[in-house]
Amino acid sequence: MATKKVAELVRARDSVLGYRMGPGLVAVASVEGERSPAGRLVQLSPEHLTVCLQKPTALKPGQRANVVLGVGGEATALRAEVMKIHRPAPKALPELSLRFVAPQLAQGRHIVSMLEGWRDKGHLELPRASPIWKERIVRADRIGRIFEALTARRCRGRARSEHGDVELSAALFDKYDARVAWEVRGGVLPPGPFLLEVYGFSSVLRFQVDEALHEDGLWSVKLPSELVRYRHRRLRRAPAWGGCVARFAHPLWPQVRVERELMDISYEGLSFATEPGEDLLYPGLVLSEMEVELPGRAPVYVKAEVRNISGTSAGRRCGMKVEPVGDATAWRMLVEELSHPNTRVSGQWDQGTWDLYERSGYFRLSGKTPADFERMKAEYRDAHERLEQAPRLGYRVVRPVPQSDTVEASLSWLKPYSGSWMAHHLARHLPAGERCRGTAREALRDIYLRGFEPAQTDPDIKWFLAYCEANVRWVRFTALDFAEWYQHTGQACVLNFHLMEADARREWVMPEGFSLGEPTAEEKQALFARLERTRPVAYREALDLVPERFDLAGLKQQWSGAKLGRERHVLVARKDGRAVAVGVMEAAHAGLNLFHVLNGLRIIPLVDASLPEAQQAMLALLAGAAEWYRARGLDVFIHYVEEEHRDYLGEAKLTDLGEGRIWILSAQLLPDFIEHLCEATTPRGGE
């Protein structure tokens, strides 16, 4: 089995090694000892070639042969070894693949020179990346938001037609006349119709243009009624800075040392400008070790594979897929430093963040005062010291004021469920007298991006969630609107709830006739059936309210390894032995969330919630929860009120912390949400 897998990997690599020849190229190769005429050259790189033969060959894998490569009137003799013979299709002619034996440096440069010449003449089939995501956008308000952001950032694009491509950039968005104006570089737009392609934050947007008008030096087109968005990467590439370089010895010719400054970088790839004739790079080339270094930091080592050599206005660009060698932590830290230079996730930011919560008004949310949180300060510090050693379970993102311990903005992240990450503790405020570095929108975008993108690399990630205030315009504009656009797909949901705080210390009275106990197997089945009928799949999956992960066993083990506590306990309220409602109680390590949102009770009635017995059952579960939390040393706990019928709240005497929305988003939608976030946070005119 292992041998078969290795063989498949070799075949897959050979299929992308170098370049395939286009139909317009007349290039042939003849193999010494073969009686058949020269075959058509199919694929070529400095380390191999593939020839389409006119008839079957007697050659066998492992045999060595001289190959004569002919192009036009020129011929080149090459020493090679047969790798494989195969037919790409049942009735196709056989193809012979050979690998060059101990190729000389001069031979490698000659082949690269030929390939680059053929490329310039359009004779090569260049590797094409298939989009991993395609989306039709037809909502007029969303299309308007997108073009408002594209023009504010002056995003680049191309007009594509049979007459050729014309480069342009977005210049002006007129929402009243529903038109977009473009600045054209070195040409004019075709008469139409033509395709207009715009490069967004991490995707490509395309739409059809029927007519373009030239007005006041700009080309104006009608706002489209439909956009198609394409994405080719799971993770975005961020521009590299600070003189970060990649350096390596060529695997075929070690005397060729390459050192190039990076253009962009991500967790899974990077790119740099290249001179193919000097660097001898081509698609499929594998580097067992490449050094990446940012001045002032220790170098990081990665394995790399050349995925493409593309043409730009400034020359050739080499795109590589990379994978860290050994411990991935150093590579992750380097990528995050380059991708998010304005934010930090490590360091002593406890006091700076606490000061931010005080001056921003965060400690005055939901009727609280700063004095209510003072006793939790030591717990908060302890919890974040533990998270510092366990970034796969949580981290705090801060945007500090330059050369200062003052924090302008902060957002914390936790992994409270098996495949879900939760955003919480959002605050932003620039102290009086501090120099403004960009807009408030840009500060919030920085901390969101720094939080979301590392979580994307968690192999278990499936969902993102947050408990949001219901009436904050920023939250509505950025998070809630987006989730509501996708609710119909099952990949997102927004649910209303009311956040209530209960005092675990006071005396609670058990309603008459009720008893509490752990659920039986039948009662658990009834609970899951009720959840399936009343809650969307995104809610059940993201909160681990499904049979296979209900006990949080795997998650609790991860938290325990980081010396952090995470619990879930379930009680059933029964009347006369019959289950009426189920309470799911959860607790997390002290100090992780200052509003106790992870120390909460959610109640799921098993009968009609409007019935008096259901209301009494909820009171019974609140009493049982108070005892459970009190035993864990907690003075208060949260109750998520998700049912419409709430008569029991009057008797429960809870503190109202306000109306909220639980926001849940599939990780598959995150690249689109990040794009939307960047559109929403792009400064508009006057900001």
Q: What does this entry look like structurally?
A:
- This protein has 687 residues and is α+β, with helices and mostly antiparallel strands.
- It is 26% helix and 37% strand.
- The longest helix has 20 residues, at 612-631.
- Name the average pLDDT: 90
Share in helix: 25-40%
Tally of contiguous helical segments: 15
Shape: elongated
Strand line-up in the sheet with most strands:
25-26-27-28-35-29-34-33-32-31-30
Poorly predicted regions: 1-13
Strand fraction:
35-45%
How many DSSP-defined strands?
Answer: 35
Structural class: alpha+beta
Biggest sheet: strands, sense, closure? Answer: 11 strands, mixed
Spatial extent as radius of gyration: 31 Å
Alpha carbon gap, first and last residue: 61 Å
In short:
It is built from 15 helices and 35 strands. The protein is of the alpha+beta class.
Using brief descriptors, characterize the structure shown.
single chain; 687 residues; alpha+beta; 11-stranded mixed β-sheet; 9-stranded antiparallel β-sheet; 15 helices; 37% strand
